Amino acid sequence: MTAPGRLTLPIETGLDDQLVGLLERLGADAVRNSDGTELPAIVGELAAKVYATYFVGRGDQEWADAHPSELTRSYLMSERTPALADGDLEIPLMAGWYALQVTPDLGCDVDRWWQVIDRTTGETLPPGTWRVSGEGADTVVTVTGAVAGHVYTVDFLAVQTWDPTQMYNYITNDWADDPSRIRESPFDVRHPATWEHVRSSLDGWLGDHPEVDVVRFTTFFYHFTLVFGPDAKERFVDWFGYSASVSVEAMEQFEEHLGYALTAEDFVDEGYYNSSFRVPTRAFRDWIDFQHRFVTDRVRQLVDAVHASGKEAMMFLGDNWIGTEPYGTLFASTGIDAVVGSVGSGATCRMISDIPGVRYTEGRLLPYFFPDVFHPGGDPVTEANASWLQARRAIVRSPLDRIGYGGYLSLALEHPDFVDRMEQIADEFRAIHDRGEGRRPASAPFRVAILNAWGRLRSWQTHMVAHALWYRQAYSYLGVLEALAGLPFEVDFLSFDDIRDGVPDGVGVLINAGALGTSFSGGSAWGAPRVQAAVRSFVAAGGGLVGVGDPTAHIDGGVTFQLADVLGVDRELGWGLSTNRPFDTVERHFITADLGAGLDVGEGTPDIVAFTRDVEVLAAGRGTVQAAASHYGEGRGVYLAGLPYSHENARLLHRALYWAAGRDSAFGEWIADDPRVEVAHYPESGQFVVLNNTDEHVRTTVRGGGDDWVVELDPYGHAWVETRELRR
C-alpha cells in the first residue's frame, strides 16, 4: 500500500460532514476551490494543504465598472460584406459577434487603430473614405465609394466586457438567472492605475487569507482568444491566440521599443487571427516576445509578494495564460513554484510535466466536475478511463509530481462509481510514482526532434486546442505527438532557425508533420536553401527524416515536397499528370511488421506519388502512396500520409524512428509482443513496468536483456517486474 498524498481535491461549502472521510479515503493531501465555489469554513481543520484560486485580471467588478477605459481589448473583424452596387456600403460590425461579450471601442482614435480593407484588391482604405455611426451592437461603418463586386471588411478594436471563461461557466452551469453571480469584466494591467490596484489587492488578499498555502493564479492578465458569436456559442477559439492581448498603450510601447508600428491587420490576419496553424509573421513573433517580456516581469512582482507572505505561487496553464508560455525564454524568471494544467491526453500531460524551471507540476485530470458530464444518466467513468489511459503513458515517461481534479465535488458525489474509479486512479498514480521514484525510464540511444515554425516555444502543443481537443483536419498529425508522449524517446522541438547551421548534435531523427502551408509543415521556410541543405546533409551523413502529411511542402522548383529526393515521394497537384510514376508495394518491411488489419492514415494526404526509382512503397490505397521508406546517402527517409493515434500506429512510429535512425537491428529490447502493451525500463533499479492500454485482459511476452517474461494484465492494468527475477 502506497502512502497517501500527491492528490488535490476540489471542495466546496455544504459538504462538511463528508470531507474528512472522503479526503482520507482518496488520500488527498491538498484541497482547492474552483471558479464559482468557496472554501468551507472548516478548511483550516482539514489535514491538507490549501490551494485558493486567485484572479488577477478579473473578479473585481467594482473596479472594472469605475474604469471602463482600462478594460482589456481585442481585435476583431467584421463579416465580409460585398458591395452589390457602386456607392455607400454599410457594414454592421457586430453582426457576427456576441454583444454581451464584446463591443466596439469608440473611445480610441478609430482612424489610427481601425482598418477598413477592400479584400478584393487588398487595399487599406484611407480615413475619410469611411465613417462610423451608432454604438454598441448597432455600430456601423459606412464605406463611401465602394466598388460593385468588391468585398470589404473592418478590423476594429473591441472592448472585452465579459471574461470568456466566466461566460463559458455561466452558459454551462445555467447561471444566467442567479442573482448572486456577477458578470465579470477583465481589466488591463498595462494601465498604471489598474496595475497598482492589482498589486495592492493581492497584498490585502494575502493578509486576509492566512489559511491559504498555495495561491493558484488562474491565471494572469490576457485571455487566449475565445470569442462567441451572436448565438452565444464559440465562434473563434485559439488557445494560443494573442488577439485579446492588445491595447493602444501596448501598441504605442511596442512601436517605441521595436521601431515600427503595428496595424489592426497584424492581429486580424485576414480573419485567421494568427492561428497557431499559420506560419507566424515577423510582427506576430515580435508581439509574442514583447508581451512575454512585459507579462513575465509583472508576474515576477506578484510571485515575490506571494513568497513574502510565506505562500507558494502556482500557475494554471489556461484561461489568462497569454504571455506566460512555459517554454518561453523568460518563464523561469517569474519564480513560479508550480504549474497545473488540464490533462486530457498524453501530449497535454507532457506539455505540463516537461516544463522547466518549476519545483513541481500537477495535472488536473478529466472529467471536470461540471453538469455537462455529471448529470443523471451521465457516464463520467468512461471519460475518466479514456483520459487516464492516455495520460498514464506520458506520466510513466515524464512523471508529473501531482494529480488533481476540478469543479463541483457535490456533482461527483452523486456518481459513487466515479468516486470508486477516482480512488483507484489516485492509488495507481501514487504507486507508479513511488515505484519509479519519480525518474524517467530509459530511452532510445538517439533523440527525436519535431521540426516546425514554432520550435521550443510550443513544445508538446502542435495541432491541438486546449484540453486535448482536436480538429478533423489535424488529428492525423496530432497522433504523432500523442504516440511520442508514451514512447521511449527524448523529444526536442526545433524551429527552422535552430537548424540553419546544421541539425543539433544528439538528434538522430527529424520529424516534420503537417498540412501544406501550415506552420507545422513549415510553408515558405522550406524555400530557404540553407534549410534544405542542412536537412539533406544531416540525412546523408546518417540521420533520419520522418515526414507525415505534407512534409517539407513548398511549391517551387518542380516539386511540392522540397525534400522529395530524401523522402522518395512527392505530392501531385495536377501539373505533372502527364508523367508516369509507377510503383510496386513491398510485402514485408521492418516498419510495418506489427501492423494488423492495415495502415490507418486518418484523413490521409491525397495524390502522393513515387519520386525516386528505389523508394520502397510500404502501403498504398486508391493509387496514392500511404507509406514509404527510402535510403539517402548514409541515412534514411520515411513517409506517412497520416498517423492518427492508436496502439498500432504508436508501434508503427516506434519502428519507423528506429529504422530511420539506422538502429533497426537494436529494436526489440524492452518491448512487448502486443502493441497494445507498452514497457518502461528502469535499469538503475533493475525493474520494468508493463502498461495495458486497453479494457481487455492481455497476456504478452516482454523481451529485454536477453530474457523473456510472460506477463498477464487485467483491463487497464499495469505490473512491475524485477529484472533480476527471471519470470518466464
Features:
single chain; 728 residues; alpha/beta; Rossmann fold; Immunoglobulin-like; eight-stranded parallel beta barrel; seven-stranded mixed β-sheet; 17 helices; 25% strand; globular
Verbal overview:
- The protein is globular.
- Among the domains are: 447-666, 3-Layer(aba) Sandwich (Rossmann fold); 671-722, Golgi alpha-mannosidase II (Immunoglobulin-like), CATH 2.60.40.1180.
- Helix 9 packs across helix 13 (475-485) and helix 10 runs parallel beside helix 12 (416-436).
- The chain is α/β, with parallel strands linked by helices and 728 residues long.
- It contains 17 helices and 36 strands.
- Residues 670-720 form the Lacto-N-biose phosphorylase C-terminal domain.
- Its EC number is 2.4.1.211.
- Keywords: Glycosyltransferase, Transferase.
- Residues 447-664 form the Lacto-N-biose phosphorylase central domain.
Shape field? globular
Specify the biggest β-sheet. Answer: 8 strands, parallel, barrel
CATH superfamily of the domain at 447-666: Class I glutamine amidotransferase (GATase) domain
CATH class of the domain at 447-666: Alpha Beta
Query: Which second-level CATH architecture of the domain at 447-666 applies?
Result: 3-Layer(aba) Sandwich
Output the structural class. Answer: alpha/beta
β-sheet strand percentage: 15-25%
How many helices does DSSP assign?
17
